[in-house]
Every structure is written in structure tokens, then in C-alpha cells.
# Entry
Amino acid sequence: MPAVAPPATLERVDFYRRALGLLLPWLLWPFALAGLLLPGRRRYRRELAAFGPLAGTALVIAALVAVDARTQLLIAPLLAWYTARGLCAFAAFLQPRLGRDVRRGFAFALVGGTAVAVLLGIDLYRLWMGATEESTRQVIAEGNREVGVELDRLMPRDGTVMSWSPAVAVWAHRDWRPLPTAPLSRVLRFADATGTRWLVFSTLNPSPLPREQMPRAFLIARILPGAASAERWRIRVLEMGAQHASGELGPDTSVPPPIGPAPSASGRTPAAVSTVLRRPGGRADR
# Structure
């Protein structure tokens, strides 16, 4: 497989954009920005005392730990406050334009009710998707079960697995660490700091590996010594199943040509497939 660099700065910005989109639907973001920027009767000192620590801490966590909706929950109260302020400003703008015959306060009820309906509609849509037999959620759940059973076979009993979904660890009966939405270098440093030696990547969830680097929908990788401080990495695929592949992720010192034998009738194939990755700005020579 061709060498592919982990996510660069612009892609990390995209990670943050997606994380914020999970905290607040994009349809309501114009109101949140309006509530933040519009002047009016505001107590800026008190506002800054609340805004500064929460927003600053969230940004520091994103820079040092991971860019993820779970790490940005600190700013959820700020988003709720400024969204409400923006909705009120829009309702105050709309009320006199509805005419004198319209009851006072109708615009506020209309705008607030519409915002609540949007939020409930999004939740109902997610609930409907979860109840659909062919939904993505069901596909992911089945894949998590398969991967968890395989991890139970591969991992030591006291091992820890890092994945996007805790369901993988539940099926494997192992301790779990959350997979950060971050470049591979940061993921490996986080795994090293927490004593984690097993990773699960998936094309169905946010992952530091590009889709073209994934031999299957799920990839189980045992972290080899030295991976956290390496400049380049190699994933050596050892087995392939129907939905998952398993192998080793370690430092890359030499890059052999990729080899990929055809799957056997059993569905598992011993392999020597090498997937090479680099840090952004790392050496491009092989």
C-alpha cells in the first residue's frame, strides 16, 4: 500500500469542526455566534469570568490530549447560553415585523419552539436510525461484537484496549480507553501514557488512519515497543477475517514491498502486508 501521512493541521481543524457539530447542530450555530457577538445589556466581566476558563480549558485539552466532542463538553454550557441569547435577539427582531395583530411574545414562542423542535427532530432521527435493521448503527454493533470476540482470543487477560466504542472492550471483557480524534502520533503517545498495548481502528468511526490504509472495516493492532516515539510506522497485517484484520503496529525502519496473499477458505489469511505511515513533515525517503 502507498505511504500516507497522518492528519495534518488542516485535518485537525476539521476534527474540531466535527466535534463542535456534535455538541450543537449546525442549524443553530448562527444563533450561537450572534449571541456571542451582538452587543447589548451585557456584564462583560462576569461573562468573561465564565467564558475564559471554560473555553481556554477546552482548547488546551484539544491541543494536548485529543480533539473530540467528549473532550469539548466544557463549552456545552457556553453554547447553550449564547444560542439562547441569539434566539432571543432574533425573536426581538422578528416580533415587530409580524404586525400589530400578532400577540406580544408570539415571536419568542415561535423561535424557541422551532429550536426545540429541531433538537427533538435530530434525536428522533437518531432513534429511528438505531431501530432500523439495516442501519449503520446495527452494522457497527455487529462489527464491534466480532472484533471483541477476536480481541478476547488475542489479548492477555489483564490487557487494555483503546477503541472509539466501548462495546469492543465489553465484548472482549477487557479494560477500555477511548480512542482520541487525533493524529496517529498523538494517539500512540496517549496509549503509551495509559499503558495501552492494543488499538482498534474502524472505517465506520473516526480514525487517524485513512480509509485506503484499512485492509478491512476493522483493524486490530498490537502496539510494538518504540511506536510512541517513532517518526514513521509500519502496520504488519497477520490475519484477515470477514470484517476485521489483526496485526502489529510498530516503528518503521525499512519499507519492504507490500505482499498480500489471497484469503484462504477459512476466511483468515496469514499475511505480510506492510502499511507505512509518516508523521507530518517527516522524511519521505524509504
User: Anything to note?
Assistant: The chain has eight helices and seven strands. Residues 1-7, 256-273, 276-286 have pLDDT under 50 and may be disordered. The beta strands are 160-163, 175-178, 198-202, 218-223, 232-240, 244-251, 273-278.
